[in-house]
Write a sequence for this structure.
């Protein structure tokens, strides 16, 4: 019914994500709570969370299933919007290639901005939202969406420069040195 294989169910049990009872015949019996928990595990997996991360979430003292699922829904809706923009960009690109329409440079890269935002959310989103709050992160994402092509290119160049400078600063082992100070200045921009 859930679409999970027997092997997956056994694996979830081995990890402590599920704890079904056993019947007299030794078969696993899943009660209502087990089914609800399995649904949550599968929903979080579909959102890209790893099993150890899911286990940590489900076992955290302040875990609230309703709030966690509301956040999951928010994440899914954001992904849906990002995919819609990417699909629209690809459709317009194909139509442009067929000579049916033209695209501005802004339209050409809109889907790529959304993809960059999604990658950033997946990598740093939880930490950033915890540290700075949803409103601040959402506002930062909107600033990225609103960037002109020139602003976007400058941001990407700055990002690559910071990475190069960081590698150089790490090689010097001098946190107060010139390389580190230049890095701090770049980060402020």
């Amino acid at each position: 019914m859930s679409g999970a294989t027997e092997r997956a169910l056994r694996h979830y049990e081995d990890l402590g994500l599920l704890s079904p009872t056993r019947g007299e015949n030794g078969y696993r019996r899943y009660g209502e709570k087990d089914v609800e928990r399995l649904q949550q595990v599968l929903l979080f997996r579909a959102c890209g969370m790893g099993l150890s991360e899911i286990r940590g979430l489900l076992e955290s003292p302040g875990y609230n299933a309703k709030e966690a699922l509301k956040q999951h829904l928010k994440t899914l809706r954001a992904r849906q919007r990002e995919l819609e923009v990417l699909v629209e960009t690809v459709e317009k690109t194909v139509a442009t290639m067929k000579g049916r329409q033209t695209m501005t440079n802004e339209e050409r890269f809109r889907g790529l901005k959304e993809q960059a935002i999604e990658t950033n959310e997946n990598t740093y989103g939880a930490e950033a939202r915890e540290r700075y709050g949803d409103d601040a992160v959402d506002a930062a994402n909107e600033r990225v969406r609103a960037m002109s092509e020139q602003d976007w290119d400058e941001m990407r160049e700055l990002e690559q420069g910071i990475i190069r400078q960081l590698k150089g600063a790490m090689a010097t082992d001098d946190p107060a040195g010139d390389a580190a100070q230049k890095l701090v200045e770049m980060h402020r921009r």
Remarks:
- The two ends are 53 Å apart (CA to CA).
- The first helix runs from residue 6 to 14.
- The chain has three domains: 6-59, 74-146, 149-189.
- The beta strands are 21-22, 28-29.
